Amino acid sequence: MKILVALKQVPDTESRIKIVEAGCTIDQTDIKWITNPNDEYALEEALRLKEAKGAEVTAVSIGVEKARDVLRNALALGADSAVLIKTDAIDDPLAVAKTLATFISGKSFDLIFFGHKGYGNDNGCVGAMTAELLGLPQAHVVTKLEISDGAFRAEREGDTGTEIIEGGLPAVITAQRGLNEPRYASLKGIMAAKKKPIEEVDCPLVDAAIRVSALSLPAPRSEGKRLDGDPASQATALATLLRDEAKVL
Predict the structure, then answer these.
(1) What is the mean pLDDT of the chain?
(2) Is the pLDDT of residue 208 over 80?
(3) CA geometry: angle at 115 spanning 171 and 131, to 5°?
(4) Assigned fold of 2-202
């Protein structure tokens, strides 16, 4: 069984975001970059299938040189190989899906894993788009997955309860929190990953339908108010503020 896991490099959620003067991208000077947290569930599921069924796991990422860190981490966790599709940042999810579909086509992967959405731009359709472009069955936002006899059975939480999706392989699966608990890399794995090669692939030119014209930070929040006194007087003051200022009473 051959498995591909698509990984995205995103800013750490604790990073303080600044916007460059041009206003169409973020200032990357002090940004710490990490693996998209949702992709960690996808990678963990692939590694569990490797351990249970002897699967071969390949990690792939689209980006510039610094995206190697994401792939190096995947190798440290247990991926067998890694591929960097080199290109400048792509903000259009369809362009990303087309790029991945071109890379995947003809490579005989049995399973293709994605996180169900990416932090940053919050795109949640790359996995589904890639499946459509490749003509493959798919299961989105999966919380349980079983693979047997060339088929999959997936569960996800819907508005009315648990939904079950079944289909044949090859297939595309997007993972979310609840599918598993991602592991940490061991020191042995980290050291071994430093010696493993990362294949580089030139990115075919894909026209983007979406382009970012401007970015802006949310308006700063107004300062809070401290209510002094005993609990009874604080409750009275709070009710007055909610009625007269917030207009919610």
Answers:
(1) 90
(2) no
(3) 30
(4) Rossmann fold (3.40.50)
